[in-house]
Amino acid sequence: MQENDKALQSFLIESDENLGQLEQDIVALERSPRDNDRIASAFRAIHTIKGTCGFFGFSHLETLSHALEDLLGAMRDGDVQMDLPHATVLLDGVDEIRVFLKRIHDDGNDGDPAPQALMLRLHRLIPDRAQTGAATHPPPSASLNSEPESLEQPEPPLSPLHDEEPENNGGAHTTMAETTVRVDVVLLDKLMNVVGELVLTRNQLLQHTASQNDAQLVNLSQRLNMVTSELQEGLMQTRMQPIRNAWSTYPRLLLDLERKTGKRVTPVLKGGDTELDRSLLEAIRDPLIHLVRNAVDHGIESPEKRRAQGKPETGTLTLSAYHESGNVTVEISDDGAGLDSEKIIRRALEIGLVRPEQVEQLSEQEKIRYIFEPGFSTAETVSDLSGRGVGLDVVRTNVERIGGSIDIKSLTGRGTTLKLKIPLTLAIVPALIVRCLHQRFAIPQANLMEVVYVESDRLDKDIETVHDALVYRLRGRLLPLVDMRSLMQMGDRETEKDQFILVLTADQQEFGLLVDDVRDTEEIVVKPLGKLLKDNPCFAGATIMGDGRVALILDVKSTADFAGVTRHERKLRHQENPLAADTQPIRAAENYLLVRPDGTSGRSAISLSKVSRLEEISTDRIEYSAGREVIQYRGGILPLIRLDNHHDIRPDDQDIIRIVVQPTEFGEVGLVVNDIIDIVSDDEAAMQQNGKTEGILGTGILQGRVTDFIDCDSLFKRFHGTHGNEDSNGS
Amino acid sequence: MEANQLICTFSVAEKHYGVVVDHVQEVLANHQITDIPLAPPGVLGLMNIRGRIVPAIALRKVLRLPGENEDDNTINIIINHGGEQVGLMVDRIGDIVSVLPEEIEPPPETLKGAPRKFMRGVFPVQGTLYLLLDLDTLLADELCSRSASRAAHSLLQ
Predict the structure, then answer these.
(1) Interface of chain A toward chain B, CB-CB under 8 angstroms
(2) How far away is chain A from the Cα of B105, in angstroms, using its nearest Cα?
(3) Yes or no, beta carbons of B157 and A681 under 8 Å apart
(4) I need a labelling partner for A19 at 20 to 30 A (CA). Which of A238, A438, A630, B34 fits?
């Protein structure tokens, strides 16, 4: 019984491989019908499946594979030539065999006969001679009514493939069997775990040895060290698979897509030998297919359109994979129409991903990225091919889940390139060990941009506490800070001792994490936290340090979400309260910079999302250009806008003026304010829209004081209208 | 008819408990435990048991018993539960006793409150009553699985 199960199992695995081969052959033959090697290979594959079916008594499956074999046999004999209709029927047959295999896998038998329609289509294409078995070659097996024993009967002798008949234990097959073995991946995973433990034990031993004064022990542990490393490396190798394995189905996929869309696409595959861990390969398989579908469906234009644009009628889809700084990069690029950023932003506005006043300051790149947001799927993009209920947000989530990232570039009319960065392996990752109070944490290097050291006496100055929100000015940029102690509820923020800021990225958003100390970088073995802790908001797993103690591994993405520093999180909160969003559309969840615009005590609030930097400059740096105030700033000229409309300078007032630097579509401008008071979150902002005061969005109460909300966009527009250059309108 | 059941006994806060011995992998004393920030209140921390990361459950807390765990003399009963290992922190480990199935009675009606649902039954050993714990419900309890942190979610807002 068990033997039989095993045989059945290997039948399923082998058949799956054979089908893969068959599929590739059919697709290749459709393009070059005279490739005899391909025909032979396809015939062999289907013949093996048919033969083994007979052995197991799967008569329905056998009937179907027999029909396929007949058709391929006729091609081999030159009676039929492969073309698109033939390929289509054959591929449908391949799909149907897969259905059978699935059923056999689930139920143990092959259930019902193949669909009548498919069988009819097949038989219609098979020439009579082949079907009746009265082929040019002596009769043996090629008949629909043939018995299962046909397996044992010799095939029609045809020199090029005769030697390689599968059941003929000759040449090629024996050598294959000698050099490779099939190993259950579960066993590999288990071995990987054991090696992980060995690595940890070695680390502990090395640490212990260092404190001993025993030359022989040192020698032995060095040997152990080397052997362990080699073993670890070797085992990692066994888990590596070439990315080609994930690509093998694409020619078929493209053929199907071509048929459905009427477009022509030539695939170009580069770097198929690039290897990565099989679990990662599995994880990116579906996302990649989705991206390929997308590229053909939305990227590449119809042949007519392409011709009209002077492009070759056949589009090119290039897939390339290569190693890059410890990652594997996979690029999918098409030479299609590119993305329409305007359409994307319209859709983003429609579903509330972005607010109208934000649009102007978005770069092309930022606009395009909205297609990765959840819920983004334009009516125009929904189709049979790509609109299968999974959007690019799912692709992004899947890629990020394995510690990868996705990037997109698009040139209108020239095409789109998607770039996936994937770590080589998940089991062992380089991480920075940091300390927070008495505990150590591991921060994956992939998320770490830089480390900033803040001395204790600079803490107050450099780390600004503005209404619970911590910020640090990193080279002029405002970096939101998260204090690890407070976030983890381990204690209050350190105000006495030196601190370190880890600049981390998650979801393209940077934030700083305040920790007490930074140790060194280590290769850590990632271990799961188990069921009880799966609900935890910040940790991806745990690892065992050299001294045998456990350290938690920070999941930077979830930590950012948990701390509320990601855009996504802000948006979620926004959605949680749809009523408030409806009635007060201008009151979106946001932080505001509270400023005193002029010498009076009036207060104004500027959306923090509009602020790129805060600067203090002395008034003697102000120069004039065409009647407006400017300063030389970062090698360029920064126009200044005064909120109070007093364009005259009052040097008596102050020597230093404060400037809020803001990006606009016309370049950066500096908003001159008298004082910067605070940063506040909108939770308390109850804004009322008042009349149409130019430059003011509304008035509300912030921190118990009446505050004007500055409408930056209208301010810039007005400013640009009075001062701007005509030529910049064309942009 | 039915074979005797072997039960590993222990005590927490001067109360006597037992778990079916089939689940017990080993008993460890004074094992190093690493805190887990934002963890469920019933999960005390993580232990390294020969390369495996094993959470330690503060049984006292989950059973809603008074007092604190003694820091310097902790005993962990490592149990296998659903393919994963979990450590139960107890005060004292007792004997392994053999109990006839009919000796295990349903928990008395007078036993009330949250801990009742963790009890599979009551059995006597030399005149003392022991409570047999049901690991499934114990580990599914919100003190073991619900992260305490969600409340603190709005730190930066």
Answers:
(1) 196-197, 200-201, 439, 468-469, 480, 482, 486-490, 527-533, 535-539, 541-542, 544, 548-552, 562-565, 573, 681, 683
(2) 30
(3) yes
(4) A238
Q: What is the DSSP letter of A727?
A: G
Per residue in B4-30, pLDDT tens? 889 999 999 888 999 999 889 999 888
Cα gap A605→A616, rounded to integer Å: 18
Comparison of pLDDT for A626 and A335, the residue scoring more: A335
Instruction: Write the pLDDT tens digit of every residue in A48-94.
Output: 888 787 777 788 888 888 888 888 888 888 888 888 888 888 888 88
Burial class (CB in 10 A: 0-12, 13-18, 19+), A193: middle
> A201 to chain B: which residues are within 8 Å by CB?
51
Q: Give the strand pairing for A448-454 and A499-506.
A: antiparallel
CATH superfamily assigned to domain B5-154: CheA-289, Domain 4 (2.40.50.180)
The domain segmentation of chain B, as residue ranges, is 5-154
Residue A555: CB partners within 8 Å, gap ≥ 6? A538, A539, A540
DSSP assignment of A260-315 equals HH--EEEEEEE-TT-EEEHHHHHHHHHHHHHHHHHIIIIISPPHHHHHHTTS-SEE
The structure's pTM equals 0.50
Pairwise CA distance, residues B68 & B87, whole Å? 17
Give the Cα separation of A101 and A685 in Å (integer): 62
- Beta-bridged to residue A420, according to DSSP, are A330, A406
Strand order in the sheet with A448-454: A448-454, A499-506, A509-515, A477-483, A469-474, A463-466
